[in-house]
Amino acid sequence: MATTATGLVYVETVAGNGRTPAPDDSVTVHYTGKLAANGKVFDSSFSRGEPTTFKVNQVIKGWQEGLGMMKEGGKATLTIPAALAYGSRQMNDIPPNSELIFEIELIKVGGGKAGGFDISELIPGDYLARSFASASVDKKNASTQSPAETLQKSAPFLLGFVVIGMASYFGVLPR
């Protein structure tokens, strides 16, 4: 068990043998998130039956710090103080100022590219993180995908329209 200067508590349950992700790496993980106060599960990729892929720098600070301590193939439990999670904001079923516990399995570092490319290669810096930082989704009436996942999966389709539009505009395609 390790407690960082920021208050994150990291407990490695299975040692990984791959590489540690960098902030701009894509990672594929399975996880369960619960409230430290009462153990109530608020989100789980296991219950959806498939892991989640995202860029490390697009998630809460506690995840960023915790993933930076893991190696591919490893499992860990992170106890994340509110300041490294959502702070004083209500986030769906997570009350303000909540300490969170995540059980994380780091399946893969790298990859996660939709249609052979990563949407973040087309979008500058931390645009997705900034865009969705204050977003709130009603999970009871919405998809289980995060906005970033939805955009990632839609990227090849959207890029196709852009390419066809540009080709038509510049006379490469018949009008």
Question: Summarize this, please?
Answer:
23% of the residues lie in helices and 24% in strands. The protein has 175 residues and is α+β, with helices and mostly antiparallel strands.
SSE topology:
Elements: E1 2-3, E2 9-14, E3 26-35, E4 41-44, H1 45-48, E5 52-55, H2 61-67, E6 75-80, E7 100-109, H3 127-132, H4 147-169
Antiparallel strand pairs: 1-2, 2-6, 3-4, 3-5, 3-7, 6-7
EC number: 5.2.1.8
Keywords: Isomerase, Membrane, Rotamase, Transmembrane, Transmembrane helix
Domain PPIase FKBP-type: 24-110
What structural class is derived from the secondary structure elements?
A: alpha+beta
Distance between the termini: 64 Å
Query: DSSP helix count?
Result: 4
CATH structural architecture: Roll
CATH topology type: Chitinase A, domain 3
Outline the biggest β-sheet: 7 strands, antiparallel
SSE pattern: EEEEHEHEEHH
CATH class: Alpha Beta
Which percent bin holds the helix content?
A: 10-25%
Average pLDDT value? 80
**In one word, what is the shape?**
globular
Uncertain stretches: 113-124, 130-136
Q: Tally the beta strands.
A: 7
Kindly provide the radius of gyration, computed on alpha-carbon positions and rounded to a whole number of angstroms. 18 Å
The figure for the number of domains is 1
Tell me the fraction of residues in β-strands, as a range: 15-25%
